[in-house]
Specification:
The protein has 14 helices and 15 strands. By secondary structure, the chain is of the alpha/beta class. It has two domains: 23-50 and 315-432, Aspartate Aminotransferase, domain 1 (Alpha-Beta Complex), CATH 3.90.1150.10; 53-308, Type I PLP-dependent aspartate aminotransferase-like (Major domain) (Aspartate Aminotransferase, domain 2). The chain has a seven-stranded mixed beta sheet with strand order 2-10-9-8-7-3-4, with helices on both faces. Strand 11 and strand 12 (349-353) form a beta hairpin. Helix 2 packs parallel to helix 13, helix 3 (53-64) crosses helix 11 (292-307) and helix 12 (315-337) packs parallel to helix 14. It is globular. It binds 4'-deoxy-4'-aminopyridoxal-5'-phosphate.
Amino acid sequence: FLFHSLQAKMSRPVQARRLEGVDKNIWVEFVKLAATYSKVNLGQGFPDFPPPDFLTEALTRALGGGNHMLHQYTRAFGHPPLVKVLAQFFEKLLGRDLDPMTNVMVTVGAYQALFCCFQALVDEGDEVIIIEPFFDCYEPMVKMAGGTPVFVPLRPNPPKDGKLMSSADWQLDPVELASKFSERTKAIVLNSPNNPLGKVFSRGELGLIAELCVKHDVLCISDEVYEWLVYDGKQHIRIASLQGMWDRTVIIGSAGKTFSTTGWKVGWVVGPDRLLQHLRTVHQNSVYHCATIVQEAVAQGFQRELMLYGKPESYFVQLPKELQQKRDWLVQSLDDVGMKPIIPEGTYFVVADISQFKSDVPDVPNSDEPYDSRFAKWMVKNKGLAAIPLSAFYSEAHKNNYTNFIRFCFAKEEATLKAANDILQKWKHEKTS
Ligand code: PMP
């Protein structure tokens, strides 16, 4: 009896204050919708083709080979073979010496790398500049750390000649960007190539950001998970390699994107020890380390890539080549039906303009939900095609700035992209007949 009455009295708020306003997550909702209704899922960003054989073979070897210690704990901050090869690899990319033990840390996906950054580097009252549109978790992660996100938009400048827009046509206004920096600014989050637009920031744009970081003594959290996925001969430039930036930048990467193994959840950070030492504190007090056996397989994958660096057989050369073809197919499909695509310079996403399809999906005046979100829900339920509304990549205050766009993922088998094309073609004919 006593036990029951005590339970009944449990009426105090159970939720920690830091969770206020961060409880909604668009992926939970859209992944469920896609699972329930989609025939073709171009929503969440993951490949539906297999990872490269050399990687799955490395995992099989790790699993069945003689070293049963690969089933046990490994070093907290990264399995030694993996941090060593990552250090070697990034020495090449950055042109500087790296210590595998202090300049590299392995995380549970890039997601946990981001979480460590915000927890370790952002304090109550700190401001963190986020460039919109952005990978949605930056905002709640800054808030959970007690920081205040400050948003600055990429603004579209459509080409005058009627050509399709490119992700390069979305640009920062230098004056507006500069106006967001103040003595309260602790960090800026940079994501190049950018999810969702596919924008690959140019040397000039990165130079501007770097200059402001140095001037205001601001850190840069550089999310480079799509570093190998750049097209049309574009170059991915690492902001850490610009003057004055190494010391204030944390580079984030993901084996999920790099080797088409999003389910393995292996990520990493590369940066100066003076920053990484604090990320290690968060890591050791939260997850401690991530699965040994997948770290071993990823290490072997990187050893192969190090040997084949820049050669045609390299996966980091082959994957973007294949994806560029897939991008072109999807761009063509979307353009054909009048869902104008913004041609991405990188990543495996295309954002498309749904304006010409609006008549099919009635607007609900004064609704709280942005139009693109309603459109994406209608599309998956009625056409079986899953995509993600662009408004999901904007802060609450700016969700209604761009509501005529949805994002498609093209890291998909040819058959999947063909099936998407069939749905779009059929829809177009229904509209016109
Ligand atoms: N950053 C960006 C920009 C992403 O798009 C993603 C995954 N969609 C992540 C980080 C998270 O990567 P991971 O799956 O390795 O946790």
